[in-house]
Branched-chain amino acid transport system ATP-binding protein (Micromonospora matsumotoense), 281 residues
Amino acid sequence: MSDTERTPVVPAQADAPMVETLPAREPLLEVDHVTLRFGGVVALNDVDFTLYKGEILGLIGPNGAGKTTCFNAMTGIYQPSEGQIRFRGEKISGKKRHQITQLGMARTFQNIRLFPEMTALENVQVGADAHHRTSVVSALFRLPRHRREEREGREKAERLLEFVGIRPRMHEFARNLSYGEQRRLEIARALATDPVLLCLDEPAAGFNPAEKEELLQLIRQIRDTGVTVLLIEHDMRLVMGVTDRIVVLEFGKKIAEGLPAEVRDNPKVVAAYLGVPDDAA
Ligand SMILES: Nc1ncnc2c1ncn2[C@@H]1O[C@H](COP(=O)(O)OP(=O)(O)OP(=O)(O)O)[C@@H](O)[C@H]1O
């Protein structure tokens, strides 16, 4: 895929046309009857759903429902025992992590994974470096092309830090950033690979209500630049406020899928969240 097919998330895009609120119905990621077992544990049981281009999809469910396993299967960490996952029409199975990144998928992790001894700027530049084309020779001798890419990478990293709201902290070591700033930095680093799909694994974990609200705004801004977003979350209220559609897992099975209001009123979902037995819901 050429770089021009991607929509980079940088402030230069701020005046780009807004994506329609209604999801475009072009499939981007297809989870096709996926079952995934760990020994005797069926972490995903015939899970089937599609993520459409331009939407914010919430993947929710109580603890142990299979959300992270589903994410890990989508991002190539686990291979499904049965079924398959397609991203932009291509099978994910058998692809290496960097190939999936090159295809345009980026993710953040439930437990923050930054380089603590690098600055915020350097952490983002590492992401942007994935797209550099210069050879080792060019880098070693600092040929003009390499120098230009280095400069562009830095400018892009600065714009991304501005976009996520932590540019004033760009020279700070990642370990010195506040928890909320580190979460934003993770998002900036993921965006540096110019993804078409950004997968966020519980990005609001540990946030207070004000921080959650700010994060929702950031997620909307990301979507408005043309990036499709998949959001794992178990805070139902948070998901309701930002997603176009929601898929609900419980014990590895999809128990509901639909618009936020439909999902919220679904008795199975209410039961799953309140721990009410199915037949009493
Ligand atoms: N590597 C693994 N080996 C064995 N079992 C696993 C592994 N990863 C996940 N599981 C099991 O698979 C099931 C689904 O776990 P998963 O972490 O995907 O749930 P989750 O919905 O992300 O939960 P949480 O909200 O607590 O993060 C659980 O029963 C879990 O114990």
